[in-house]
Each structure stands twice: as structure tokens, then as C-alpha cells.
Design a protein that fits this description.
Chain A: This is Sugar ABC transporter permease. Chain A: It is found in: Cell membrane. Chain A: One of its GO terms (cellular component) is plasma membrane. The complex is a heterodimer of chains A (296) and B (277). With 296 residues, chain A is an all-alpha fold. Chain A has 2 domains: 43 residues, no CATH class; 227 residues, MetI-like (MetI-like fold), CATH 1.10.3720. Helices cover 74% and strands 1% of the residues of chain A. Chain A has a two-stranded antiparallel sheet. In chain A, a hairpin with a 7-residue loop joins strand 1 and strand 2. In chain A, helix 3 packs antiparallel against helix 10 and helix 12 packs antiparallel against helix 13. Chain B is mostly helical and 277 residues long. Chain B folds into 2 domains: 56 residues; 167 residues, MetI-like fold, CATH 1.10.3720. In chain B, helix 7 runs antiparallel to helix 10. Chain B is globular. The two termini of chain B are 46 Å apart. Classes of the chains: A mainly alpha (296), B mainly alpha (277).
């Protein structure tokens, strides 16, 4: 009797534990790779460490050095250019194209064409556009057409190359935003638009006053995704210029990688990663806070 | 009024067509030039139609240069296995969170989902250090585990949402029939979740396939290197001057994602979950 009872309670105890076993693989993997990594990065960002010798804690020195490091400052500026450029091309132009596409009959054709580059990875789009922009490609064509001054390797011109890469990544990245905008536009109920039409709203005014406010939820998703991704721009730059020439086209993600894995400054690299993460979190929070307010 | 609408519609069509053509031009460039020989590309103009058909030579060259095939197969392996494992683990967790008796459901969900909050730049230094210490650096298994772990949060998010929509009555009646929790997970939840599982698979496979950051950081030899890291060797200072081979490699490496694009193309109009990775 006693034994049976303890067996029963053993069994019920086990029964209480078993549901947690379903969670275990996910929690362990995410715990090891994500949560441990976050904590480790935070700690290392306060240390001077080359990965071989012992860690030396130096307080906020890495963070203070950041703001005196010309490479970091330039890279922040480039990242800002990426962010603004992303708002212009993959967001604003995607919206313009989406509105235009909802007005024509061959929607699916245009959707497919504009989305197609998105089926390539950023790395591959980078390789393709690098060869197009090389001296054998587009600049050469312009040279033949008589614009001799344009016939050089654009990607080796500091600052110009960042702009070119922003446009290139716009070519690759416009598709998803475009599709989301079209989905959003098609979902907008017809009644408020008809009502506004009857009251005389047309063209741009109709869009500004009626359609765009209704598109706000999708707009926020697109903005959040695009902003966060533009802050993390890495692949395109890595392939197209590798951050050069003379580290002039680096973004924060590239600078972080180079400091950590080329210059072996793991502490400094972690500090840049922290800076990047906190910036991204603040942006996300600002955008999402607005959404929650809108829902109230 | 009608004629005005028709005319503006036509203008919009022309406007879109011009840009669509611009958007398509790079593809034309790639297709035309990937079949040329290197000599033909370097001596001729890129807008000339190809005279030779050097696909085989170009492939042999690029395969030699960056172990293209090995990278391709590695990425297929990472993409297929890591995504499958992630879906398996995430679905178990989603099942526990949505239907089993556990404490702190929201806590566990947020704990796992927090994996998507920080940019992946936060992870590369710690994982690189950890892998160097336990000899997982530059191994297939090492990259496989990383990809699995990083796919879990997104899959959990999608599957948990779906699992909550499964009617409780179904579960109750299965329990009356004496089905165990695991049986219910397999025969009800997993069976009903085919569509979201497919979506998770396609999206996460694409992410793994396209990843450059972790491939660069955690692998160095061709044995473990994923496809995008291999391709990245083609550009920059150490790159190749053989443009046609690079373009051919770009085409072949895009086949899996183009294939997925074709599958997803059909479901565009229904809207689909997105990831900010």
C-alpha cells in the first residue's frame, strides 16, 4: 500500500516534469547560443581582449574609444546613409510602385518582376552588380557612349560607392516590401475610399488623407523590418567593396566584424556590437510603442 | 471620366514597364554573359550575344577555384537538416506552451523568442570563442547546431500562434479516448499544422541558404563552408577576373531560392509571415 502510494506520487511528479521536457531542446539551444551570447558580449565589451591573453577589464574605455575612432565615426555615418537610403528606395519607392501596380491590370506580372531579385541572396546580388559595375560593365558602356569621365570603377570611389551599394541593395530588397504594400492596399475596404471620392478627394490628396492612414499597420511592419535590416547591413558591403577603399564604406556591422576578426580586438568589437544592438532596440521600441498607442 | 481613367492607367503601365525593364536588365546581363568564355567576355562587349557556349569550362573553373559543389551540398545539408530540427524542437515547445500544464507559459515563450531581439552581430564573437574552445570551429556539426538554434524562435512564434487556433474540443475528445500527450501532439497538432510548417521550412531554409555572416565567422575550410561564404571569395581583392564563371556560380547558387520563390509566388495574395532577419 505504502509502496503503491509512493509510486503513484512518483508518477504524478514525473507527470508534472514531463511537459517541461517538451520545452527543453528549444530552451537549451536558445539559452546556449542566444542568451549566453548576449551576456558574454556585454561582459567582453567592458574588457580589452585579443582572444589569446587574459581578459583585462577596462570599464567603459571601449565605448569611449569608439567615439574617438575615425573608423567608427565614419562607419556610423555610412550606416546612417544606409538607413536613410533604405527609407527612400526599398520603402518609399516600393510604396510608389505598389500604388501604381494596384492601378493596372497586370498586377501579377509586375509583382513577379520586382520580386525576382529578392529570390537572390544579398551576396549573389552583390556579386552580379559588382561585375555589372566593373570597368568592363556599365561604366564601359557609358564610356563608349561618350561619357568618358564616367568610365571608371565606381566602387573604388569613396562615398560614391556607399550610395551605389544602397541603390544596389534596393534593387535586391524592394520585392518583399512591395508585396506587403500591395497586400495591404488590396485589403483596404472600399467604402471609405468611395466616400472620400464622393466628397471630391482625388489623386495625391486621396492617398494622403485616406489610403495611407489605412495602410499604417503594414507601413509599420515594413518600416521596422527595413530600418532594422539597414542598420545591420553587412552582406552587400562585404561582397561589393569589403568596406574599402581604406575602410571608407564600412557600416557598423562590417566595422564590428573587422575589429573582432581581423584586428583581434574582441572587446572593442563587442562594444560596437552592443552599440548596434542598443540602437536597433531603441528604434524598434520607438516604432512599436507607436503601434501599441494606436491600438489603445 | 472613363477615358481619363484609361489614359492615366496607360501612363502608369508605361511607367511601371520602364522600371520593370530596368529591374530585369541585370538578369539579362547574367544569362547572356554566364555562357561566354572568359576571353570572349574580356575582349568583347558585355552586350554582345554569346558566340561560344562555355558553361562546362566555366563551371569546372569556378568549382576548382572555390569548391563550389561542396559549398552547395553543405548548404543543402544545413538548410534541410537545421530547419527540420528547428521545426521539430519549436513545435514541441509550442505544443507545451499552448496545451500542456506548465507554469509561466509567457515566460518560456519570451525566453525562446528573445533569440530574435538582438542583431546576430551580438552572437558571432561569443559563438566563435565557444566553438574554438570545444573544437566545433570549422565543423559541419558546429554550423548545423548554430543554424538550428537560430531558426527556433521564428518557428516557435509561427507554430505557437497556429496551435492556439486548434479547437480545444479536439484535444479533449482525444484525451477521452485515452490518447497520451505525445500522441495528441503527433496526430492532431502536427498533422493539422502542415501549412505553417511548410511556411517555416521555406522561410528558414531560405535564411540558412542565404546566410553569409555565420559561414564567414565559423568556417574556414571547404569541408564546412556554406555556399554564400564560398561565393564571397569570388569578389574583392582575392577575387576572380573570370566574370562568366562567377555569374554562372551565381545562377546555380540561386536555384534553390528561385525554386522556393516559385512555390511562394502562388501564395503571395494571401499574405505570409515575415521575418526581420
Amino acid at each position: 500500500m505504502e509502496i503503491a502510494k509512493s509510486k503513484l506520487s512518483m508518477k504524478s511528479k514525473l507527470g508534472k516534469i514531463i511537459p517541461y521536457l517538451y520545452l527543453a531542446p528549444s530552451v537549451i539551444l536558445v539559452g546556449i547560443f542566444c542568451i549566453y551570447s548576449d551576456v558574454f558580449s556585454l561582459i567582453v565589451s567592458f574588457a580589452e581582449w585579443d582572444g589569446l591573453n587574459e581578459m583585462k577589464f577596462i570599464g567603459f574605455q571601449n565605448y569611449m574609444n569608439m567615439f574617438q575612432d575615425p573608423n567608427f565615426l565614419l562607419s556610423s555615418l555610412n550606416t546612417l546613409i544606409w538607413v536613410v537610403g533604405t527609407l527612400l528606395i526599398p520603402v518609399a519607392i516600393a510604396l510608389l510602385f505598389a500604388i501604381a501596380i494596384t492601378h493596372v491590370k497586370t498586377q501579377s506580372f509586375f509583382k513577379t518582376v520586382f520580386y525576382l531579385p529578392n529570390a537572390l541572396s544579398q551576396t549573389i546580388a552583390g556579386i552580379i552588380l559588382t561585375t555589372i559595375l566593373s570597368t568592363y560593365g556599365l561604366p564601359h558602356l557609358l564610356g563608349v557612349m561618350g561619357f568618358d569621365s564616367l568610365a571608371n570603377d565606381w566602387l573604388t570611389v569613396p562615398y560614391l560607392n556607399t550610395l551605389i551599394m544602397v541603390v544596389s541593395s534596393g534593387w535586391q530588397g524592394i520585392g518583399l516590401n512591395l508585396i506587403l504594400f500591395i497586400v495591404g492596399l488590396n485589403q483596404i475596404p472600399k467604402e471609405p475610399i468611395e466616400a472620400a471620392r464622393i466628397e471630391g478627394a482625388q489623386g495625391i490628396k486621396l492617398y494622403r488623407k485616406v489610403v495611407l492612414p489605412l495602410l499604417k499597420p503594414i507601413m509599420l511592419i515594413v518600416l521596422l523590418m527595413s530600418l532594422v535590416n539597414s542598420f545591420k547591413s553587412f552582406d552587400t558591403i562585404w561582397v561589393m567593396t569589403n568596406g574599402g577603399p581604406y575602410r571608407t564604406s564600412e557600416t557598423l556591422a562590417v566595422t564590428m566584424y573587422k575589429e573582432a576578426f581581423v584586428n583581434n580586438q574582441l572587446g572593442y568589437g563587442s562594444a560596437i556590437a552592443m552599440f548596434l544592438s542598443v540602437t536597433v532596440l531603441i528604434i524598434s521600441w520607438l516604432l512599436l510603442r507607436d503601434t501599441f498607442k494606436g491600438e489603445e | 471620366m472613363k477615358s481619363y481613367n484609361d489614359r492615366s492607367r496607360k501612363n502608369i503601365s508605361i511607367f511601371l514597364s520602364i522600371f520593370a525593364f530596368l529591374w530585369f536588365l541585370p538578369f539579362l546581363y547574367v544569362v547572356i554573359n554566364s555562357v561566354k568564355s572568359r576571353k570572349e567576355y574580356n575582349l568583347g562587349e558585355f552586350w554582345d550575344l554569346p558566340k561560344s557556349f562555355s558553361i562546362v569550362e566555366n563551371f569546372v573553373y569556378v568549382n576548382d577555384r572555390i569548391d563550389f559543389m561542396m559549398g552547395f551540398l553543405n548548404s543543402l545539408f544545413y538548410g534541410a537538416i537545421a530547419t527540420t530540427l528547428a521545426i521539430l524542437f519549436a513545435s514541441l515547445a509550442a505544443y507545451a506552451i499552448s496545451s500542456l500544464k506548465i507554469k509561466g507559459k509567457m515566460f518560456w515563450f519570451m525566453l525562446i523568442y528573445s533569440g530574435t531581439i538582438f542583431p546576430f552581430q551580438m552572437y558571432i564573437i561569443p559563438i566563435f570563442r565557444m566553438y574554438s574552445n570545444v573544437d566545433l570551429y570549422d565543423t559541419k556539426i558546429g554550423l548545423l547546431v548554430v543554424y538550428t538554434a537560430l531558426c527556433i524562435p521564428f518557428c516557435l512564434f509561427v507554430l505557437r500562434n497556429y496551435f492556439y487556433s486548434i479547437p480545444k474540443e479536439l484535444v479533449e475528445s482525444a484525451k477521452m479516448d485515452g490518447a497520451s500527450d505525445f500522441k495528441i501532439y503527433l496526430s492532431i497538432f502536427m498533422r493539422m499544422a502542415k501549412a505553417p510548417i511548410a511556411a517555416c521550412f521555406l522561410f528558414q531554409f531560405t535564411w540558412v541558404w542565404n546566410d553569409l555572416l555565420f559561414g564567414l565567422t565559423l568556417s574556414k575550410s571547404a569541408e564546412a563552408r556554406p555556399i554564400m561564404s564560398s561565393l564571397s571569395l569570388l569578389n574583392g581583392a582575392a577575387g576572380t577576373n573570370d566574370v562568366p564563371s562567377a555569374l554562372l556560380a551565381a545562377i546555380i547558387a540561386s536555384i534553390p531560392t528561385l525554386f522556393i520563390f516559385l512555390i511562394l509566388n502562388k501564395s503571395f495574395n494571401y499574405g505570409f509571415p515575415t521575418t526581420s532577419k
